Structures are given as structure tokens and as C-alpha cells.
Amino acid sequence: MRLLVSLFTPRPQHRSFALLDRNGRCQAFKQCSLQPMGEGWVEIEEIRLNWLNQPLPASARVQPLRSRARSRQLLAI
């Protein structure tokens, strides 16, 4: 029964993050549901091990979503 229930319960969506140093080089990866604490973490589309110790490509970063509040402000004008 527990297996059946687990099939229908929502699972947390894991997001991928990369830790960048001062020069923009990738130092570490992490997958979690919330953004990691500390400076240097950026959200990325996917993890590729060949990015370690290399500059992170601009296309790897997740594009930030516009907030609903900002969209409502634009509609109100």
C-alpha cells in the first residue's frame, strides 16, 4: 500500500547549481530543491563534469522567471 501511495505523492523537484569562484570558473555542483546558502551559487540547466575548473558557459545558466508582481504592475499601467 505504501508503494501505491508513494507513486501518487508529489516529489520535490531538484534543481542544479554550480559554485563559481571570483573568476567565473566552476568549482562544484549541487542538486537540491532550494538554492544553496552562500555566495557564488548560480542555477544551471544541467550538470556537466567537463565544466569543472573551467569558465561556465553563459548558455548553461537558467534564465530567471519574471515575478507575477512585476507582470501585474505592467498590466496596471
Which terms would index this structure?
single chain, 77 residues, alpha+beta, three-stranded antiparallel sheet, extended
The topology string of helices and strands comes to HEEEH
Assess the beta-strand content as a share of residues.
Answer: 15-25%
Uncertain stretches of 5 or more adjacent residues = none
User: In angstroms, what is the radius of gyration?
Assistant: 17 Å
Shape: extended
Biggest beta-sheet profile = 3 strands, antiparallel
Strand order of the largest sheet: 2-1-3
Count the DSSP helices: 2
Helix-residue proportion:
10-25%
How many β-strands, per DSSP?
3
What is the straight-line distance between the termini?
53 Å
Count of distinct structural domains: 1
Helix/strand class: alpha+beta
Mean of residue pLDDT values: 84
Task: Produce the secondary structure layout.
Layout (H helix, E strand, L loop, with lengths): L1 H7 L6 E6 L5 E7 L8 E4 L23 H9 L1
Antiparallel strand pairs: 1-2, 1-3
In short:
This protein has 77 residues and is of the alpha+beta class. The chain has one domain. Helices cover 21% and strands 22% of the residues.
Task: Give an overview in words.
By secondary structure, the chain is an alpha+beta fold. The chain has 2 helices and 3 strands; from the N terminus they run H-E-E-E-H. The chain has helices at residues 2-8, 68-76, and strands at 15-20, 26-32, 41-44. It has a 3-stranded antiparallel beta sheet with strand order 2-1-3, with no helix packed on it. The longest helix has 9 residues, at 68-76.
